[in-house]
Amino acid sequence: MKLSRLFLSLFVTTLLLCVPLVIEQALELYESNKLHTNKSVLLELENLANAGDNSAAFLLATAYKNGKLGEKDLQKASHWYEKSANNGDKDAMLMLGWLFYKGSDTTVIDITKAKYWFTKASNEGVEEAIEMLELLD
Fold first, then answer.
1. Separation of alpha carbons 112 and 114, rounded Å
2. Which of 12, 45, 60, 101 has minimal Cβ neighbours within 10 Å of its Cβ?
3. Do 101 and 114 contact (CB within 8 A), yes or no?
4. Residue 81 CB: number of other CB atoms within 10 A?
5. Is 64 in contact with 74 (CB distance < 8 Å)?
6. pLDDT tens digits, residue range 4-31?
């Protein structure tokens, strides 16, 4: 029994150590404009994001927003920012506020949604969101 607990503990520890390595590797690829070329890292990043990892979701969102995965895709960026924001990521909340405030070719300006996300971010203490709410009122 103790041996199986030990193996389980080692397995979980290994998993926890691997997550930051994938994020670190993805960040290096992002910064060198090569994230789109490494499908295995992208797949791992998406799996982490779908499993609730805010860093992975935020990185994917930012990559789509900035065209690091091909053409800029603000709908996909919005999807990943929302996934991260719904898990409590205040930076993702702020980014969603900006996406809805500015709009784009694929995202309609929606001040109500912008205020919603700026409010959520301001409730988390994000100064920029507080300033945007003051501007919008």
1. 5
2. 12
3. yes
4. 29
5. yes
6. 454 444 444 444 444 577 888 888 888 8
